[in-house]
Specification:
Chain lengths: 224, 469
């Protein structure tokens, strides 16, 4: 085992403090990771470039293939992210159990690559939720009533923006007329706020891990 | 003091240290690796100048992209080929306890080969960049899927950062009726608690009906814990567990086996252990299940009908049902048995083990695939499953009935290789996800048990398999 290197992470995470952005609504429950990024794009061995294929089957009228020129593909004019009023959106408003299905981190990679910095929904699938934090994407849980209200506001006010304040743990309208608090795990908040590489953090405890491992393998040698 | 749950025991035994807020550094015993979710992790490791912490924890295989026929021609899709070659290269460069590459005799779906090789053992933490890692919980292991950043974290540190989940008990009492399988049971559970019902929880499946299941049946149930929203599903250790493991290639032997078994016997929830949530089911009331929508919770019994969104009060649910029916091309109130299928897929980490193939073959034996079914395919979960089935003559049974008999892999479960549905095609599938486009863009998936899939193949539409016995 190589000694832990003090060097920075291979893919530094963008820190998240306060973000203001245009909100796009995706009004359906149980949006799964197959919908977020279809399987043919998982063949890539890179971490980037998934944005043009975010929600591919809803966004385009033809079938997407890796390597195709997405700029030339026919867009589905009815799909919400294709509407001009949501161009440049960086906050995605969604319904319950967002990100259910597979563990593919390509889903948050695609959302982040598209330009989203934060998600707002009543609930998320566990693995997806976890994966977001590793990629500088903040998944915010708000109660159904608050999410309903935001869906109504987005529909009513073109150009509707929200200010997301991670240190203060609030979602607010730009005029401050609505301020909703949200919960986030302190450790996750800390890592996201400072863009910390959690491998580096863990390796600070390498000795403790090594001692734990030695004892475990001695007691249960069949685990070797 | 209430007793400890199985989940408590497994989690607590792996805590290396804790942050003040309760986030634990959890030690990983077994790391399963496949080609789709690992390349970026290995690359990240390399770029940071790090090495895998303990390569003897790693068992790797290529399964998602690999073709299921014409193996002599290799992998034709260049992008898939690159991904598989990248895994070859990464494992070769850094090492592993075992690697079953494309065309290896023991290659197969990662969740089939782990238990088959005895690489999954009771009391382990088992992780993989794959949500169906929950499968391995059938062995009283704490097994769950992780994202690629976490794959890199495990490679680099042998640990994961996580908080303890809540615990959920799903107790299934009584006996499953003849012709009703573990798959029907777990679909019925998801139908009741919903695809988010287990979110934030680790589920323990218990009760006499679970005890009565074989290890393969338990794996089917735990496999779909993730479809109920739970990262981990698990079953306590008992004689069935030991009998399955004895003599497996990576299982301990001799005195070590005895020591291991003594420890494994403790891997059960204590009497009176408290769970955060409990659901009780009656196995005798479960009938063969068929999904009608685009989420595994959209399921009913084969005797049922496609539901009518107009009768749903909740607006979000109603809207979801209407969207699902439009996608599935189904009218409300259609009897399930009136739904005709174009393709049949028997395979996936849910249902591609030898008992699954035996159950499907029992239905196919002496019958023919119906004329309206364009393709009925059987994809064994691994090389050893395939060899066993061939030794029992099951391949002949399937071929004689008009099924295609393929090489092992994930295949049309997620259609990353050539096996896929065309737009509008309808499939009876033994896999675990009926999401839009899962088996091919525009494809329509109905999840069923292997026996029900075989029955749909020979009838040309869904039919209660119990009527074919
Ligand atoms: S068989 Fe399907 S669900 Fe299982 S690992 Fe392969 S793709 Fe995933």
């Amino acid at each position: 085992m190589a000694p832990p290197r003090p060097s920075g992470p291979a893919h530094p995470m963008q820190p998240f403090t306060v973000h203001e952005g245009l909100v796009a609504p995706l009004d359906r429950a149980n949006v799964d990771t197959d919908a977020i990024i279809p399987k043919q794009f998982l063949k890539s061995i890179k971490r980037s470039g998934f944005g043009p294929n975010l929600f591919d089957e809803w966004r385009y009228l033809d079938r997407g293939e890796p390597g195709a020129d997405n700029a030339r593909r026919p867009l589905n004019p009815d799909f919400v992210l294709n509407l001009p009023r949501y161009k440049g959106a960086s906050v995605l408003l969604a319904r319950r159990n967002f990100g259910c299905g597979s563990s593919r981190e390509h889903a948050p990679w695609a959302l982040a690559d598209f330009g989203f910095r934060a998600l707002i929904a009543p609930s998320y699938a566990d693995i997806f939720y976890n994966n977001c934090f590793k990629n500088g994407l903040l998944p915010i849980v708000l109660p159904d009533s608050a999410v309903d209200r935001l869906f109504a506001d987005v529909a009513a006010f073109p150009g509707f923006r929200l200010v997301i304040d991670l240190p203060a743990q609030t979602v607010a309208t730009t005029d401050g007329s609505l301020v909703v608090p949200f919960e986030v795990d302190p450790f996750r908040k800390h890592c996201l706020q400072h863009g910390l590489d959690d491998i580096g953090l863990t390796l600070q405890h390498a000795d403790v891990i090594r001692a734990f491992e030695a004892k475990r393998l001695a007691e249960q040698p069949w685990l070797q | 003091m209430p007793g400890a749950t199985l989940y408590d025991k497994l989690f607590d035994a792996h805590v290396v240290r804790k942050e003040p807020d309760g986030t634990a550094l959890l030690y990983v015993d077994r790391h399963l690796v496949h080609e789709v979710t690992s390349p970026q992790a290995y690359e990240g490791l390399r770029l940071a100048g790090r090495k895998p912490w303990r390569t003897s924890s790693i068992v790797a295989t290529a399964d998602h992209n690999t073709p299921t026929k014409d193996w002599d021609q290799g992998i034709r899709d260049p992008i898939s080929r690159t991904q598989v070659a990248t895994l070859d290269e990464n494992v070769r460069a850094t090492g592993a306890k075992a690697y079953f590459p494309f065309r290896d005799r023991r290659q197969g779906i990662v969740h089939v080969i782990g238990p088959e090789q005895g690489a999954t053992l009771p009391g382990m933490t088992v992780v993989c960049g794959d949500s169906h890692t929950s499968t391995h919980g059938a062995f009283a292991a704490l097994a769950f899927g992780i994202g690629t950043s976490e794959v890199e974290h495990v490679l680099a540190t042998q640990c994961l950062l996580m908080k303890k989940a809540k615990s959920m008990l799903i107790r299934v009492d009584g006996r499953l009726p003849a012709g009703v399988t573990a798959k029907d049971l777990v679909l019925a559970v998801i139908g009741r608690i919903g695809t988010a019902g287990g979110t934030g929880h680790a589920i323990e499946f218990a009760g006499s009906a679970i005890r009565a299941l074989s290890m393969e049946g338990r794996m089917t149930v735990c496999n779909m814990a993730i479809e109920a929203g739970a990262r981990a599903g698990m079953v306590a250790c008992d004689d069935t567990t030991m009998d399955y493991l004895r003599g497996r290639p990576f299982a301990p032997t001799g005195a070590l086996w005895d020591r291991a078994v003594a420890h494994w016997r403790t891997l059960r929830s204590d009497d009176g252990a408290a769970f955060d949530a409990t659901h009780v089911f009656d196995a005798a009331a479960v009938a063969p299940q068929v999904t009608w929508g685009t989420s595994p919770e959209m399921v009913t019994s084969v005797a049922g009908r496609v539901p009518d969104p107009d009768r749903e009060r909740d607006a979000t649910r109603r809207d979801g049902m209407a969207k699902a029916l439009a996608y599935m091309g189904l009218a409300p109130n259609t009897p399930i048995t009136d739904i005709r299928v174009d393709k049949v897929f028997i395979g996936s980490c849910t249902n591609s083990r030898i008992e699954d193939l035996r159950q499907a073959a029992a239905v196919a034996r002496g019958r023919r695939v119906a004329g309206n079914v364009k393709l009925a395919m059987v994809v064994p979960g691994s090389g050893p499953v395939k060899a066993q089935a061939e030794a029992e003559g099951l391949d002949r049974v399937f071929r004689d009935a008009g099924f295609e008999w393929r090489e092992p892999g994930c295949s049309m479960c997620l259609a990353m290789n050539d096996d896929r549905l065309e737009p509008g095609e309808r499939c009876a599938s033994t896999s675990n996800r009926n999401f839009e486009g899962r088996q091919g863009a525009g494809g329509r998936t109905h999840l069923v048990s292997p026996a029900m899939a075989a029955a749909a193949a020979v009838a040309g539409h869904f039919v209660d398999v119990r009527r074919l016995f």
